[in-house]
Write a structure and sequence with these properties.
Elements: H1 2-6, H2 13-26, H3 47-61, H4 64-78, H5 110-123, H6 130-144, H7 164-170, H8 178-187, H9 193-200, E1 207-209, H10 227-236, E2 251-253, H11 265-271, H12 278-285, H13 290-298, H14 300-315
Antiparallel strand pairs: 1-2
Helix pairs in contact: 3-5, 3-6, 4-6, 5-6, 9-14, 11-13, 13-14
The chain binds protoporphyrin IX containing FE and 2-acetamido-2-deoxy-beta-D-glucopyranose (NAG).
């Protein structure tokens, strides 16, 4: 209110006051209003610097870990809330780990998130939630991969349980329809085709195991796939019976041209019928999503802008407030009672 009254003397105050109101109402009902930029600026002023330093070091040594944080944030936020429920190991207190779900197949590098959390605990014990550590790591990871830097708010709390039974229901599958995908994203706060198309651009980096591909390659190469690309993928995945087992190490890169760049090559590939997953390729064919695919393929800056916006929205899905969760000491286990 104070800002509004003072606006008569300063032309800068009114717009910022409006921004304030806009962003608190856009956030989800419930805990949405608890998030803000720089939530730890007093309780742990170096928190965001520490994440950034850790990400820079880890990225330098294990570049794939930046890729993993993006996928991990997506899976965590699709199931109820961005509450680090994904990070819990199976335990009596938390229940069966979400990581054990078939939908989490291929997820990796969780130990590097533990390293970030350990650095935060050394600086400010019991202060920075695992959910925020993941959101900030994904933010800095996206930037390290040449993507945009999103203005991620903080203040999430961590869940006291894992929701194994909800993972297959709420995280889309590789062969889902566009309708199913749009419904799932909308339920997580990302309403509309543009944001969904932008988020799938994360498949510009990383890899897919043959288990998730052979259905498009055998007995015949999917008619919707560029035949030359099909032949290449059959070389990567030489047999039809890939197993749902990460020890079955055969995989294909999401983007052969720029595999470690979060860029719009993904959309160019889709338009050339070189989508990897069925769900990727469908974005180029469905009339609701195709126009955004074409526009992102043509304009990397537009992709980056929409990716950052959608990542922020997704990262603010239903955050837990102070009384709804805790700050876990170890991201893998709920705090002892
Ligand atoms: C319709 C939605 C989505 C589906 C069905 C989906 C499915 C998949 C599948 C099946 C894989 C390959 C797993 C493997 O075989 O190892 C994968 C990888 C990946 N996904 Fe998605 N995904 C979706 C959306 C997203 C979103 C929104 C993000 C992030 C913003 C994301 C980030 C990633 C990343 C980075 C990888 C590579 C992981 C690695 O190399 O370890 N995905 N996704
Ligand atoms: C999608 O793929 C899974 C295997 O990953 C399979 O069990 C399921 O039947 C497929 N669904 C459809 C609709 O084809």
């Amino acid at each position: 209110m104070r800002g509004l009254r003072r606006s008569s003397t300063s032309s800068l105050v009114l717009p910022s006051a409006l921004l304030f109101f806009c962003c608190f109402t856009i956030g989800d009902a419930g805990g949405g209003g608890v998030l803000r930029l720089g939530y730890y600026s007093e309780s742990c002023p170096r928190a965001e610097d520490i994440v950034q330093e850790q990400v820079a070091q880890l990225y330098h040594k294990h570049g794939n870990t930046a890729v993993s944080w993006l996928r991990a944030l997506f899976h965590d936020c699709m199931v109820r809330s961005c509450d680090a429920s994904l990070l819990l190991e199976t335990s009596r207190a938390a229940g069966v780990s979400e990581k054990a779900s078939p939908r989490s197949f291929g997820m990796r590098n969780f130990k590097y998130l533990d390293a970030i959390k350990a650095a935060l605990e050394r600086e400010c014990p019991g202060t920075v939630s695992c959910a925020d550590a993941l959101a900030l790591a994904a933010r800095d990871g996206a930037a390290a991969l040449g993507g945009p830097r999103a203005a991620v708010r903080t203040g999430r709390k961590d869940s006291r349980a894992a929701y194994y039974a909800e993972v297959e229901r709420d995280v889309p599958n590789h062969n889902d329809t566009v309708s199913a995908v749009l419904d799932r994203f909308a339920a997580a706060g990302v309403v509309g085709a543009e944001g969904a198309v932008a988020l799938l651009g994360a498949h510009s980096v990383g890899r897919v195991h043959c288990f998730n591909l052979v259905g498009r390659l055998y007995p015949a190469v999917d008619a919707g796939m560029d035949p030359a690309y099909g032949a290449y993928l059959r070389g990567r995945c030489p047999t039809a019976d890939a197993r749902e087992d990460t020890r079955d190490v055969a995989y294909a890169r999401n983007d052969r041209a720029t595999p470690m760049l979060l860029d719009n090559m993904y959309y160019k590939n889709l338009m050339a019928r070189r989508g990897l997953l069925l769900v990727d390729q469908r974005l180029a064919d469905d009339p609701r999503t195709a126009p955004f695919v074409a526009r992102m393929a043509a304009d990397n800056a537009y992709f980056h802008d929409r990716f950052a916006a959608a990542l922020i929205t997704l990262s603010e899905n239903n955050p837990l407030g102070d009384d709804e969760g805790e700050v876990r000491r170890d991201c893998r286990f709920v705090n002892p009672a």
